[in-house]
Input
Amino acid sequence: SRPSGYQLMLFMNRWAVLQLAVSLIATGQGTEAVSFCSRHPDVLVDIFIFAVVSAFGQSFIFHFVVAFGALPLSIVTATRKFFTILASVIWFGHATNVSQWGGVVLVFTGMGWDIISSYRARSAKEKKVE
Output
């Protein structure tokens, strides 16, 4: 039988943990991380909260893709990132230059083009069925 979506996410996360463990051991950063956590045990609560929120986020993304598809997910994700950048500029006064705003325009133009193209393809397919 085929694995469920949650099983696939579990297998991917296990693989990621294995790769991360190998990298932490190979670079020696694993001992630095353990040392840091032992010096600052309060960070363990933040790490735990981050892990739980990440798991919920991963589940949300999976359900969103199943329900609506990859294109709406990319639109939601890019829009969220845009508003995060905008909030950062307004709230913290971070400077942005013309090329950065040009990148934002390119991303949303590309997504708009993708939306229009998929809408036209869907409309053409529906007309052929009629």
Q: What stands out?
A: The helical segments are 5-27, 29-39, 43-68, 70-92, 98-129. The longest helix spans residues 98-129.
